[in-house]
Amino acid sequence: MERTFVALKPDTVERKLVGRVIQRFEDRGFEIVEMRMLTLTMEMAEEYYGEHKGKEFYERLIKFMTSGRIVAMVIKGERAISTVRKMLGNTCPCDAEPGTIRGDFGLYTPANIIHASDSLESAEREIDLFFGR
Known about the structure:
This protein is of the alpha+beta class and 133 residues long. It has seven helices and four strands. The longest helix has 12 residues, at 120-131. The two termini are 17 Å apart.
């Protein structure tokens, strides 16, 4: 079974959508094996999004991700990384298909509800960052 990292962003928590988003993963047969709610420090956010440093959206993303609580999760299941990414939909909610998490709940970028690892390497790095492995 494959594991992936998922973070529900501050807009998800603020809009009280956490349960509805988690339900989608459980309905699809995925198992939530670890979960914690936290507020990212500036340092943690910068490490988490370090690959984007220098990009035009970086500062806005860091500010947004440190603006409130997030829910960090490890999700396990068959082809978890690719399937979860498909469930999310396009990064920009306005381009996300209805029926995807971002298509149904996202408002704008970076308030697009959710992040999920895009590769096995990213999943391992992000799980280690948030859950200390």
